[in-house]
Structures are given as C-alpha cells and as structure tokens.
Amino acid sequence: NNVKIQVKFLKLNRRGGPRPGWLGQVGTNRYPMHGLAWVALILALCIVNSQRELVFKLGSVMETANDVPECPGTGAMIQAFQVPVERLNSGIGHGKDGLITKVSLQDRNGHKFRIKFDYINRVPRACTTEVHNEEVERLIKEDKVHFILGNTHFAFSEAKVVNEAKRLTYHCCFETDELFKLDYPYIFGIANLADQETHQALTSMALEDSIAKLFVFYTMDFRYATQACENAVDYASSQLRRISTKFEVVKVLKYSNANISSKPTFFDSVIVEEAVRSGATAVIGCDSTINGFAIAKALGRIKHRLKAIFMTLSPTVYSFASGVGPEAAEYILTSSSWHPKMLGQGDSFFGTPKQYADAYEAAVGSTPSFVPALASATVVSLMFAIQSAFKDCEFLDPANLDVDSLLFDSNAIRCTNSTGIAAVAGMPVTGYDMLLKSLSAQSMSTFLGKVEFNHFRRNIAHEPVVLQVQNGVPEIVLPLEQASKKLIMPIPHPEEEHRIGALKEDIFIVVVVVVVAGTLILLAALLLVFFYRKQHVDKIQLLLTVEAEQLQIINLPVQLGTSWESGKARLRNTLVALEPLTEIKLASTSGEITMPKKSFLMKGKWLLGSYLSNVDSKKLRSLGMDSEAALSGHMVTNPQLYDIDVESLQHEDTYMNGGSVNGGSVNGGAVKGGGG
Q1: Rounded CA separation 56/35 (Å)
Q2: How far is Cα 310 from Cα 296, in angstroms, rounded to an integer?
Q3: Which residues contact 94 (CB under 8 A, 6 or more apart)?
Q4: Peptide bond preceding 69: is omega within 30 degrees of 0, i.e. cis?
C-alpha cells in the first residue's frame, strides 16, 4: 500500500545499547522499550492499519420527494438507507455502548477485509414503469452496482430486469406475497406479510360486545393496501365468526385515485356517508400515508358513532396527531413492523430499537417510523450476510482480491463445508453464490426484530405490533408482551366522558374552579381595599377630632365688625388658633346670624341654645343642623362644614388671658397648629 516510514537510526551508548534519541525509550524500568522495538511496533501497526477494504456498491431508483403521488414514501427510504451506510463507513471496532460498527469479512485462513458500502440513488425524470426500468439498467451497466435496494412501487417490473441481470434485489417494504411467489432467486424481502396486518386488531374488535358491524374501505391503486384490506374481509368473514356470531362485515367500499380526483369531497361525501348509512360501529381503512391523513380528518366528524377505527400506515407517523388534529387522531389503531419501544430485539451494529431511533434522529433530525426502520434493517441484514458468506471459503489470491473478482470470478475463491464437500452444488462457485446462500440461511435478531427467510426468500419470523394513538402518540397495545399501553376499546364517546355542554366533565370542573377562585380573589382584594381605605379615613378623622378637655383656652375668637379675630388655646403643649366655621363667618358677614363676641363655633358644632334663638331654622338646616338639635346642645355632624385652617401663633400670644370650655367635645374643629 506504499506506506512510507521514516526511521532515524540511533547511536550506541558506551555499553553498546541504543541511546534514547528521536524514538525515545518507554516501558518499565525493568523492561525498557528501546527505539528498535518502536520500529517493529510501527511496522506492525502499519500492517494492521493497512487492512484491505472491499467497497460494495448499493443502488436504488427512487424519488427524493415524499409527496409524489405515484411514488409515495421513497424519500424516507433514501435517508434510511444512508444512515447505516454512513455508520458502517465511519465505524470503529467497539464503539459507544459496546456496539461494533466496523465490520469485516474473512476466509477460513484468516484473510480479513473491511466491509464498506457505496450507495448510489438514481432519481427518475418521471415516475413511470418505463423510466424506472431504464434507470435500473443504468445502475447495473453504468454504475456497476452489486446489489439493488428495491422500490416497492415498481417491484414487479423491476424484478424482471434485475433477475435477468442476476443482481440481488432486497426489498425493505414490499409486504405482499404475490411478488415472492414468482420465485425469483435474486429477490428478497425483509417486511412482514401484509395479510396479517389487521388480524390482531380485528380479533380485539370481535371480542368487544359493543362492536358488531364492520365497514371496510380501501384503494385499488396501492397493492399493499389492497391486500391488507381484502385479507381483513376474509378473516372477519370466516375466522372471526367463530369468536362472535354477531360480528359481520356490513359494507365494503373500493375506490381508486381517479375516484378521489373526480370528487374533491370524496372522503367526506363517500367514505364517511357510506360508513353512516351502513350503521357500522367499527371501520377498517387501507390507503397510503398521504390519503390517510385526509381520511382520518373526515372520520373525526363521525367518531362519536364509532367504537373502533383501524387505518394502515398514516397513524404510524409521529406527526399524525398534529396533522389531523388531536381529537380526530385519538384512539385510532394501526399495525407497524417496528416501534422504538419494542422489547427483546437488537443487534451488535445499531443495538436496541431505542438506540436505532436515537441514531436515526441524530443523523436525520426526526423520529423514524417503521418505514425508515425497515429500510435501514435491509442494509444491516445485507451487511451481516456478506460478513458470514465466506467463512467456509478460501481466497486463492488475497493480495489481488477486489469486490468484482470476489463476487463474479469463480477462480478467486474455493468454498467447501467442514466435510470438504462443495459449499454450493456444482463447481465452480462464485462469491455471489455464497452471498445468496448466506442471506437465504440468515436467522438472527436485529433492532427491527427477527430475520429468517422462507423458501420464497421473504422474512417470515418478524411479527408486527398494533399501535394505538393515545395522547397524540402511537403506543404499542398488542401483543400484550410488547405493550407499552393498555388497549382502549371501545372508543370513549362524549356521553361516556360526561360532557357538560361542549366540555368534558373534568375540564368543566376545572373551569368552574378557576372562575370561582378568581371571583373570590377579586372579592378579597376589594374587601382589603375597602378596609384599608376605611382604616385610613378613621385615622384621619381621629387626627381631626379634638376633645374639649384637651384644650386650654387662652382667649376666644372675637367678631370685629364683619371679620373675626382668631382665638388662642393650648393643645398638647402646642399653641393653636381657634377659628369660627367658614359658614358662620359668611353668615355673620351677611347679617343673617348675630352671635355674642365671646361665642365661637368649632367643628363638631356644639351650639348653645341661648345663642341660636334668633337663628332661622331654614338656615340651620343649610348648615347641617335642625333647631331641636341645636337648642338641646346636641352635635350635628356634617363633614361638609368642616374647616381646617392652620396658622402659627406668635410667642407673645401665650401671655393672653386664658379661658376654658366646660363639657362637650370639640371634633376636628378649626384648630390651627402653632409653635410653642
């Protein structure tokens, strides 16, 4: 391999040994490793690292888009083929979690070659049988691919081309027996049978007392869907009658893409209406993933009439619930070849189903459904078949061995079993013969499940699981040994969920509790504001209330013509001014009230009857008092009459003659604060 090594010779020390130099000296003190040993080690490493590689070419003809009606789903397959190819090509020996992603083949003499894949996909210029077959021929003749990854939608026409070219074609997702019963020796399939897709779900329906009438609808343009539902009708009409004599198929509806195109409301006006007219309590529908989304939305409008719904393909997609709506998607059943929560499965390359899902999501950025899992498992199964194909063979010229000579040159290998008999009947044999034999005999567990082929070269060991959408997520419900959730059947109806109006009972209770709690919180807040304001007002009124005994009168207010001179008093060691009420001032100014010079009116209004004998009762009422109250000396409270004027007193005012007020109280009177 033209490996270049630079070696720097070492000088000998005085004792004749090599001096530590460019290569250094490592090892223990007792057993040092000198430079010459390093040379030997490097040479050995070069030999190990120069292990030959055999790059096998894989090819496919598929559309890259997922939304092409004639070729649905192939874009997802392409991505799923690439994931194991890239993992294998960049793999190491024992990697994360002990998985072996660096895979090699070897002969009985120990000649070892690392396996790598080169994946080529040709995108057809049109999704037609003629164009597809042309691209398959180009893969074989121009790209020189060794193996074909089959396209489900052109399986029959493709099979003729590849079988004539003697190229192994491995189908990931073709789930009907028709192709394999043609017994093409180069055609293999890893998917489970479509005719068993509905069996577990149908059996559960027949065992449910509330389900008696079954409506079945399916497309005639998608072979897998057609076979799945046709078998469902046969199974329900024959086998399930033994379980429940009242369980029957009341209506079967077949349609084509042309029917759908001619009537924009086909799913609502035809499928849904037929389901209602038939009086069905359960439905089974078989169609593509794209159509399945639209059908689920339509069935959601009559879901309250149904006890069970089974649909192929679309409910396996994790975006199903968000695509059709949570209410429409909930409780729908489907069948799947794979799920991340499957138990008891695994291999040394991807590990468990959960580990595969993590690896796929890390590479692609989305959670895989069963279609990507099947596609990736096809590559993994082929890889393991290549790894074990040549264990009973001898590479006759390993130094010059390449992939083409290994597979097609009968002089490149000699293969016999342990008794010395030729491994394949007839001599000589090629590597392709040994590979077909290895794949046919494969019996192993993978992250997908078990792989074991019948004489028609299709996988018969893999069992599907039944999924049910619960809380927006497809969960395993059957078989019981694989179940991650309990099967919910019949579908809970609104009346069974105790709805109040448009809301479920539990949701209604939550709404009521929230409203009542919000109202109580609002009332509590209002009460707090009320009591706070009342307390604040009480504090202000307390500050404005002055008892008579708290005042030491120095002199009373004196009327001087039309004006008043303030009186003086001492309040809590503070000099204050005494002012008559503003209303009294105004009244006296206008001549309506005449009061003695020594009388004064303070807030709270203690009025002596002798001073009010000449006061008009109408005027008293305007002041907030009545005659009887005024004459009896009772206080009439009217906050609008309060006058709070404040004015400082001069220090010399404290030497004026004092006075006193006997009895009564002065409530927040016009008391002016002063210094003192």
Answers
A1: 40
A2: 10
A3: 100
A4: no
pLDDT for residue 140 = 97
Helix/strand/coil for 236:
helix
Supply the pTM of this predicted model.
0.67
pLDDT tops 50 at residue 16 = no
Rounded to 5°, the CA angle 403-174-477 comes to: 120
Q: Say whether the peptide bond before residue 490 is cis (omega within 30 degrees of 0).
A: yes
What is the average per-residue pLDDT within 118-137? 94
CA 63, chain centre distance (Å): 28
Q: Which pLDDT score is estimated for 584?
A: 61
User: 10 Å Cβ neighbour count for 518?
Assistant: 10
User: What's the token pair of residue 83?
Assistant: 């994931």
CB 185 within 8 A of CB 165: no
Helix axis angle, 353-364 relative to 74-89, nearest 10°? 100
C-alpha to C-alpha distances, 592 to 100, 559, 589, 602, 631, nearest whole angstrom: 115, 14, 8, 18, 18
DSSP 588-639: HHHTS----TT----TT----GGGSTTS-HHHHHHTT--HHHHHHT-----G
pLDDT for the residue 568: 87
Burial of 339-365, coded b for 16+ CB within 10 Å and e otherwise, reads bbbbeebbbebbbbbebbbbbbeebee
- Which residues does 167 contact at the CB level (< 8 Å), separation at least 6? 140, 145, 146, 147, 148, 186
Q: Which candidate, 186, 108, 115, places its Cα nearest to that of 414?
A: 108
Distances (CA, A) of 86 to 51, 80, 89, 102, 332: 19, 10, 5, 11, 36
**Nearest Cα to Cα of residue 150 among 122, 129, 168, 171:** 171
Measured in degrees and rounded to the nearest 5, phi and psi for residue 534 equal -65, -45
CA atoms within 13 A on the CB side of 522: 6
* DSSP secondary structure letter of residue 241: G
Give the model confidence (pLDDT) of 156-169 as tens digits: 999 999 999 999 99
Beta-strand relationship, 104-106 and 168-171: unpaired
Q: In whole angstroms, what is the distance from residue 490 CA to residue 240 CA? A: 18
Instruction: Provide the token pair at 157.
Output: 């026409």
Cα(539)–Cα(632) distance, integer angstroms? 30
What percent of the residues of the chain are helix, what percent strand, and what percent coil, each to the nearest 5? Answer: 40, 20, 40
CA distance 295 to 217: 11
Q: What is the pLDDT of residue 375?
A: 97
381/422 Cα distance (integer angstroms): 25
CA atoms within 13 A on the CB side of 451: 28
Q: Is 18 helix (H, G, I), strand (E, B) or coil?
A: strand
pLDDT tens readout for residues 549-583: 777 888 888 878 777 788 888 877 788 888 776 65
Q: What are phi and psi of 58, to 5 degrees?
A: -110, 145
Collapsing DSSP states into helix, strand and coil, what is residue 216? strand
Please count the other Cβ atoms lying within 10 Å of the Cβ belonging to residue 331: 20
Contacts of 610 (CB under 8 A, 6+ apart): none
Beta bridge partners of 18: 12
* Single-letter residue type at 36: L
Tell me the C-alpha to C-alpha distance, in Å, between residue 250 and each of 215, 295, 308, 437, 524.
Answer: 6, 19, 15, 48, 62
- DSSP-assigned letter for residue 245: T
304, 275 Cβ separation under 8 angstroms = no
Cα–Cα distance measured from residue 658 to residue 655, given in angstroms and rounded to the nearest whole number: 8
